[in-house]
Design a protein that fits this description.
The radius of gyration is 19 Å and the shape is elongated. It folds into two domains: about 30 residues, no CATH class; about 120 residues, Nucleoside Triphosphate Pyrophosphohydrolase (Alpha-Beta Complex). It is α+β, with helices and mostly antiparallel strands and about 180 residues long. The protein contains three helices and ten strands; from the N terminus they run βββββββαβββαα. Strand 5 and strand 6 form a beta hairpin.
Length: about 180
């Protein structure tokens, strides 16, 4: 088995959306067999673990159309083309909870669904949360109706155990706090 990446012989774009692209890629495996992979191409995202001065973590509640229900989750968002992940984390923090972090600490980067999607999630702890200045303007996306609320880490862990938190990036982000 080689560690060299397989180079697609043929790429077919099925769908080009605002956030991601769906495509098929035909490759020849080391065995000589041909394989067609169905792949979602995503620019990457940031996940923010905003920690208040009281040690609480701010979650956001929003409606998720894909699952047809509301979910409590960590603030997060897609990277814009060429955007630095830390800058995106600061922007998303302000957009989703209305506060600007003084400090962003990288917690790691992970691929949530590498079997069919190349999205890489960059996790950041956000501390020193403060109100934005007049020059710091960021607002939620037009499709977002978000309710931010601080919770103790213990309460969040109970919500995870009780099935109230169903979002895996949130489970991962809270786990990263314990490192």
């Amino acid at each position: 088995m080689t560690n060299e990446p397989l180079v697609p012989r043929e790429i077919t774009r099925i769908y080009q959306g605002r956030i991601f692209t769906v495509q098929t890629e035909k490759v020849t495996l080391a065995s000589g067999a041909e394989f067609t992979a169905e792949i979602i191409r995503h620019p990457g995202s940031v996940v923010i673990v905003p920690v208040t001065a009281q040690g609480e973590v701010v979650l956001v509640r929003q409606y998720r159309f894909a699952i047809g229900r509301f979910a409590w989750e960590l603030p997060a968002g897609s990277l814009k083309a060429g955007e630095d992940a830390a800058a995106a984390a600061g922007r998303e923090c302000q957009e989703e909870i209305g506060l600007v972090p003084s400090t962003l600490t990288p917690l790691g980067s992970f691929f949530p669904t590498p079997g069919y999607c190349d999205e890489e999630m960059h996790f950041f702890r956000a501390d020193g949360l403060r109100e934005p200045t007049a020059e710091e303007t960021a607002s939620p996306d037009e499709d977002e109706d978000i309710e931010p609320r601080p919770f103790s880490v213990e309460a969040i862990r109970r919500m995870i155990a009780d099935g109230e938190i169903i979002d895996l990036k949130t489970v991962g982000g809270i786990a990263l706090l314990g490192r």
